[in-house]
């Protein structure tokens, strides 16, 4: 191996997190309730992007700390609540959703994130749509 390759490999392992491209990204959520007349399209931000991970194929040869399977997750978030229009009086017309303020590469926290790959779902409205820009 050339010295340049070894130095590049060590640099990548040490400073790999700085090469990650994990940041808040614009996303539209479509929310509807069966009882309400409208679907609400909400523009928000989520954490998305690339995080450096290390392959665990050599897990018997490496220390556990050298094996990282990081994901792009929330560093800081807040919740906003909107009113879904066209709901009858007996229905709770509010919907709360997360807004990513900042993101980080780290372990997935199941307290506030879905850490498994979702099955294919559509993100659209089946009722007349109202746009919510906050």
Automatic annotation (TrEMBL):
Keywords: Disulfide bond, Glycoprotein, Hormone, Secreted, Signal. GO terms for cellular component: cytoplasm; extracellular space. Residues 21-125 form the Glycoprotein hormone subunit beta domain. GO terms for biological process: G protein-coupled receptor signaling pathway. The keyword Secreted applies. It comes from the Eukaryota. InterPro entries: Cystine-knot_cytokine (IPR029034), Glyco_hormone_CN (IPR006208), Gonadotropin_bsu (IPR001545), Gonadotropin_bsu_CS (IPR018245). The keyword Signal applies. Residues 1-20 form the signal peptide. It holds the Pfam family Cys_knot. It is found in: Secreted. One of its GO terms (molecular function) is hormone activity. SMART domains: GHB. Heterodimer of a common alpha chain and a unique beta chain which confers biological specificity to thyrotropin, lutropin, follitropin and gonadotropin. Belongs to the glycoprotein hormones subunit beta family. This is Thyrotropin subunit beta. The lineage of its organism: Eukaryota, Metazoa, Chordata, Craniata, Vertebrata.
């Amino acid at each position: 191996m050339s010295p340049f390759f070894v130095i590049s490999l060590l640099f990548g392992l040490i400073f790999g997190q700085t090469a990650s491209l994990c940041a808040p990204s614009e996303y539209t959520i479509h929310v509807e309730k069966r009882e309400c007349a409208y679907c609400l399209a909400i523009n928000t931000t989520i954490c998305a992007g690339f995080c450096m991970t290390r392959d665990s194929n050599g897990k018997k040869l490496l220390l556990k700390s050298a094996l990282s399977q990081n994901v792009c997750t929330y560093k800081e978030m807040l919740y906003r609540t909107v009113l879904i229009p066209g709901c009858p009086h007996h229905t709770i017309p509010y919907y709360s959703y997360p807004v990513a303020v900042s993101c980080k590469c780290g372990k997935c926290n199941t307290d506030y994130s879905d850490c498994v790959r979702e099955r294919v779902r559509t993100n659209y409205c089946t009722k007349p749509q109202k746009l919510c820009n906050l």
